C-alpha cells in the first residue's frame, strides 16, 4: 500500500461543512504541534504494521496546501489485472493531492495496463472519492456506496462497468438525519468478516439487501452501532502480512478508539479470522477519517519480480513485492496492501 506522511497535516476547513466526524484541534494547540503529533501517529501505524509482517511503502508530503494528503485512498485505487483509477474530489483544495510521481512509480514498478481517470468530471460538480466513497468487496465484486455529493451514483456505475463490480448504492444517515459523507466510515469488508452499521440505512428493505449481499458467501457480518461508527469502528481494513516463518497472517487494522468501542463478542467474531492491530491516532481522526482512510492499496503485479513476494493481498490473494518510486518523495522502500 501507499502511505502518505503528510508533514503539514491539520483538519481541513474546506471539508468540515459536510464531514460530521471532523473536529477542530484542541484550543491552544498550534498547527505545528498538530502536525507533529500526526506525524508520530503515522509512524506508529507504519511500525505496528511492520511488526505483524506487513510491508509499508511511504511517500512524504511537505506541501502545506494539502492538509488531507494523509488520506490517499480518496484519489487513487489499483486493481488486479493492471488497472488504476483516479477519482474526482469534492473539495477543491484536495484535488492537487493527485500526484504524478505516485502514478509514475506504479507504472515503472508494476504491470499497469490502464489508468482510468475520472477527475475530469470535477468541473461538472460530479464526484466519487475512491475507496472512501465506495467499500469494495473483492470476493463478490460488489461496490457498496452511501449516496452523497461525494459519491455520485452515475460515476459509481461507470466505475463498476470499467472495473467489473456490481453497484449497490443506498442512503445512510446518522440519528440527526445527516447523510454519511463517506461509506468507509460505516463499514469495511474482509475475507470472512465484515463490519457494517446497517442501522444507519433507514430503508429497511435496502438494509436487508445489503445484509444479505454481505453474507451471501458465508461471511460473518458484525453489526456496529452509530456510536461505534463515531469512534471509527467502521473505518478498519483487513490486511495480510507474514509471520517470521513466512506464513500468511491476516490482520484487521483499526484505530485504538475503534478497538475500545467494540464489545467483547464483536472482538471475538473478528478474531475468528484475523488478528486486530489497533493504533492510537486521535490527531489524525480530528480530520474525520481513520486507519482505512490512510491506506491506498497496491493490487498490481510487480515487473519483473526481483525478490520473493513478502505480502499477499488479503482478499484477492495477489502477491506483492517491494516497490521503489525513484522519486524525491519516497522515504521508505516497503509496500503495504489492503483488503
UniProtKB/TrEMBL annotation:
Pfam families: DDAH_eukar (PF19420). InterPro entries: Amdntrnsf_FN0238. It comes from the Bacteria. Residues 14-33, 319-339 are annotated as: Disordered. Residues 14-26 have a biased composition (Low complexity). PANTHER family: AMIDINOTRANSFERASE (PTHR43224:SF1). This is Arginine deiminase-related protein.
Amino acid at each position: 500500500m501507499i502511505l502518505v506522511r503528510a508533514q503539514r497535516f491539520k483538519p481541513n476547513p474546506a471539508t468540515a461543512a459536510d464531514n460530521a466526524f471532523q473536529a477542530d484541534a484542541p484550543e491552544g494547540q498550534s498547527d505545528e504541534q498538530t502536525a507533529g503529533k500526526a506525524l508520530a501517529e503515522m509512524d506508529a501505524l507504519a511500525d505496528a504494521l511492520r511488526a505483524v509482517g506487513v510491508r509499508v511503502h511511504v511517500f512524504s508530503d511537505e506541501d502545506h496546501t494539502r492538509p488531507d494528503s494523509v488520506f490517499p485512498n480518496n484519489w487513487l485505487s489499483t486493481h488486479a489485472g493492471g488497472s488504476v483509477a483516479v477519482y474526482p474530489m469534492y473539495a477543491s483544495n484536495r484535488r492537487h493531492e493527485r500526484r504524478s510521481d505516485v502514478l509514475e512509480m506504479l507504472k515503472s514498478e508494476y504491470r499497469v495496463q490502464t489508468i482510468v481517470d475520472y477527475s475530469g468530471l470535477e468541473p461538472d460538480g460530479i464526484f466519487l472519492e475512491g475507496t472512501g466513497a465506495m467499500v469494495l468487496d473483492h470476493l463478490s465484486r460488489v461496490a457498496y456506496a452511501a449516496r452523497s455529493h461525494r459519491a455520485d451514483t452515475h460515476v459509481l456505475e461507470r466505475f463498476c462497468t470499467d472495473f467489473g463490480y456490481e453497484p449497490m448504492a443506498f442512503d445512510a444517515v446518522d440519528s440527526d438525519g445527516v447523510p454519511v459523507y463517506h461509506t468507509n466510515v460505516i463499514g469495511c469488508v474482509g475475507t470472512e468478516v465484515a463490519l457494517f452499521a446497517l442501522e444507519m440505512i433507514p430503508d429497511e428493505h435496502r438494509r436487508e439487501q445489503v445484509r444479505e449481499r454481505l453474507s451471501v458467501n458465508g461471511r460473518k457480518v458484525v453489526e456496529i452501532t452509530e456510536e461505534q461508527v463515531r469512534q471509527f469502528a467502521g473505518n478498519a481494513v483487513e490486511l495480510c502480512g507474514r509471520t517470521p516463518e513466512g506464513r500468511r497472517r491476516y490482520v484487521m487494522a483499526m484505530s485504538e478508539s475503534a478497538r475500545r468501542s467494540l464489545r467483547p463478542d464483536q472482538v471475538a467474531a473478528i478474531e475468528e479470522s484475523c488478528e486486530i492491530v489497533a493504533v492510537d491516532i486521535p490527531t489524525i481522526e480530528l480530520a474525520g477519517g481513520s486507519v482505512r482512510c490512510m491506506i491506498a492499496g497496491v493490487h498490481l503485479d510487480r515487473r519483473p519480480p526481483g525478490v520473493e513476494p513478502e505480502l499477499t493481498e488479503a482478499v484477492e490473494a495477489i502477491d506483492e513485492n517491494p516497490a521503489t518510486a525513484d522519486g524525491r518523495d519516497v522515504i521508505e522502500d516497503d509496500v503495504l496492501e489492503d483488503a
